[in-house]
Amino acid sequence: MFVEPSPHFGALQSIVDELFEDRPRDHEVRRLDAVLAAEASDLPDDLREVVELLPAGIYTRQRLCDQMNSIIGGHAWGQIYGTVE
Q1: Are 34 and 70 in contact (CB under 8 A)?
Q2: Residue 56 per-residue DSSP state
């Protein structure tokens, strides 16, 4: 079954890239940083929900991606919105 990607496909990847752009590999961001970046990007409700469901804490890029991909997978939105790396 083919699922057509959303026009917002890859939007979360852009948020992750922005949060870690020109930063050292071990750079960390707070959940609040991700929430604010998502709000500033005017994401659709589904994608804002992904970010809002992140547990409180501090994230390396890998941990943030793992958490987001887990939420995306739990909602079966990978084909619609894409995953992050």
Answers
A1: no
A2: S
Q: How many other C-beta atoms are found inside a 10 Å radius of the C-beta of residue 10?
A: 15
Residues with Cβ < 8 Å from 1, sequence gap 6 or more?
A: none
pLDDT at 63 over 80: yes
Scored b (16 or more CB within 10 A) or e, 43-78 reads beeebeebbeebeeeebebeebbebbbebbeeeebe
Q: What is the pLDDT of residue 2?
A: 80
Q: Does 56 have pLDDT greater than 90?
A: yes
From the DSSP assignment, how many helices (H) and strands (E) are in the chain? 5, 2
Could you give the CA distance from residue 75 to residue 52 in angstroms, rounded to a whole number? 14
Per the model's pLDDT, the better-predicted residue between 3 and 31 turns out to be 31
Identify the pLDDT of residue 39: 94
